[in-house]
Amino acid sequence: MRSEEVRGQNRAALIFLITGFVLSVIVMTLPLYIFHAGVYTKKSANTFHGDEKYNAVYAETEQIAKEYREKGFDVEIKEDVLTRVNSKGETTSLITFTIEETKGKNLWSFALSSLPSGHLFRFILCCCLLSLICGAFGLAGTADILQRFLPGRQKILRTLSVAFAVLSFLAVPVFAMLSNYTFSRRLSLYRDGHIEEGKGAFFSMLDAFLFDGTAGENIESMLAKLDIHRSGLYWLLLPCFFIMITAAVQIRHGMIKNTLLHMLLYVFVAAVCLVTVYPYFVMLVTGFRSNAETLDMYFLHILPTQWMFRNLTDILSRGVGRYLFNSLLVAGGATAIAMLCGVPAADALARMKFRGKKIFLGFVIVSQMFSPVVLLTGISQLMNTLHLNNTITGLMLINAAFNQAFAIWLLRGTFISISPEMEEAALIDGCGTVRALTKVLIPMAAPGIVTALIFVFINAWNEYTISTVLISTAAKRPITVGITQFSSFNMIEWQYLFAASLLATIPVVILFMFIEKHLTAGLTSGGVKG
Amino acid sequence: MKRKKWEPYLWLLPSIILVAVFVIFPIFIVFKLSFSEISKSGVVGGFIGLRNYSEAVQLPAFKTVMKNTLWWVLSVVGLSTVAGFIIAMVLNQKFKGRKIARSILILPWATSLVIQASVWNYIISYEYGNLNNILLNLGIISKAINWRSSYQIEFVWECFVGIFVTIPFVTFCVLSGLQSIDPSLYEAATVDGAGFWSKLKNVTIPLVRPSLTVSTVLNIIYVFNSFPIVYTMTKGAPANKTDTIITYLYMLSFYERRKGPATALSVIGFLILCVCAGIYMLGVMRKEEE
Questions:
Q1: In which band, very low, low, confident or very high, does the pLDDT at A33 lie, cut at 50, 70 and 90?
Q2: Domain housing A318
Q3: Tens of pLDDT along A273-318?
Q4: Within a domain: residue B15?
Q5: Residue B18 in contact with partner chain A when CB distance is under 8 A
Q6: Using CB atoms and an 8 Å cut-off, which of residues 319-348 of chain A contact chain B?
Q7: Which residues of B touch A427 (CB under 8 A)?
Q8: Does A462 touch chain B (CB under 8 A)?
Q9: Angle at B36 between CA B35 and CA B41, to 5 degrees
Q10: Sheet holding A31-45: strands in order across?
Q11: Same domain, A15 and A95
């Protein structure tokens, strides 16, 4: 690439960076909240719209409004008419005049305030300014130099520019959360008397922000008349900062065509990951809440105010330890049985030639279509006959049988992919088939075997339906059934339910991440090869 | 190298016994029960022909349940296949953090369905649900929304959770198909002047079709058989309006103790699955011939 071309690209990127910054500054001057606060009220009884008394009171109110206007307040007059028929059958009326002050607050007023969201906004402001400065200095004097020849200092500055832009982008939703927490939720909860704690400090903070501290004692009544409109325009900061990030990445990596596409890809991946992680996040924060917090409809915070690690000991004392142990037994036993039956079968299917091989393979594939749920009545009947009803052994056998197809499928795929020469050599040396299998094939196919093993284990661990039907004694329940005791019809103890769920989820999730790569390859190759 | 003729069969024997006793035998039991009279306490009587079947078809909820099952399978399998395909295409690109993204996106596959369903149950509840809490805190909504105001909406939520937990399986099946595509094919297509859509239509889709077929057919079976999501979130309420065949036959059999029609429904469900399995087998066979 010629140096003029590099310079041109960098110049374009810098212009974009500045544009993003300017746009975000414009957004910051737009009104964010509009407050309507009553400053004066005049009530007049037995007054009807348009009569003499009305005109007199109206004139009086207007006079006061004028005084306010002269002091530089933006006020308007509102009137409320209340008519009703009294016991004597006469119509009475009450007119209320209110002088309302309208205040628009934009993000700059937050910058000057001591609200929590004000601190955050100053942080956002610093970040986007720093991003701009770092970007500009990162380019200074080196705008026509290719990326790989850049001096180290320049590289660091350009990277910092990206980092600051990303920080300011991420801080916007947090800002939205904090400011809404203050004005939409906390204020209304204090006003409606749902919470009392910390009221004074909160109100004096609002006094300083809204009325420059002039309200003093009257703040409570003034806040009661406060009417708040949120414009939501601050969300426009997100695209502005996104432009800045894109430009900064462009300056850092110097690929004009792909930058935007790449950024969109990141946004997509981040969004999908966020949705995927969301239920686990909920599980985590709810699992450590107190019971009162999980059921409190006025609860404000996203995170628990106090992390209740006691929940863990509570659930252990309510049998969760026993359930986890049962699950371990069922899953471990099922895995052992499935592998003991599956490894020889997979070996035969991968290495030996015999009549009926195709039929058996077809049978293996079809048998994974049979879900235990459709056969529930049949299975419970069978278990009764075998006297395995309500036993952990019964669960092991069922889980092993229904995972047999998958185990054989995965194992055969691995065995086929290993060259048979070593085994043949072992057989010629006089080893029996059993020894050839245990001494040669199994060590070589270890990754594939571990994959199949873990997969069967996880399936058996997560199994729910059969266990609900077969197990009737509480002490024999596996964890998936055990957790349902916390969600009975009349009372759901969410915090225990999710604390137990966490204990049930974390081990298998870790196991699953181990085998993720092998598993997908095994699944499709097995399926396609049949 | 010589092996005895009976040896392979001996090696297959444990597996065959296990599957025969615990998978094949219950099928026969269910078939036999569906033609027998069964009392409420579970005592099996004599042969009564097709009476259980006619009783099952005449159940007031039968039509709704069938319709729900159809919607459930179609929407969950269809939408999760589309979404999984798109996510797989994205994950197949090279970018920083791809490994982390893969590990995160596979999470729902590893989690028990009961747990996923209970979490979503909490998330969307009206009074104290986490979704309302977060949206209120972000200021996106100003008043709590009742996310489950009618049973139709609840059913949509159940489908959503179904899709959510099914996507990883599709994604990773398609992804392994995508990764086996020779990059030179794309280079050749680019030289020929093919755009994104043309490459998608002429290179990507034909080559991942085998993995897509596997995942779709297996998904139809899994989703059809899926029990915990519907059972945990609504238990079919109100009046079986959100039940699928599977949850309905469970309710019939173990709550209402009407084992006769329940086993008849089992057989109907089993036959539907067999048709799917048959189509799958045909596909695999054709693949083998190629």
A1: confident
A2: 310-529
A3: 999 999 999 999 988 988 888 777 666 677 887 888 888 888 888 8
A4: no
A5: yes
A6: 337, 340-342, 344-345, 347-348
A7: 1
A8: yes
A9: 140
A10: A75-85, A91-106, A31-45, A227-230
A11: no
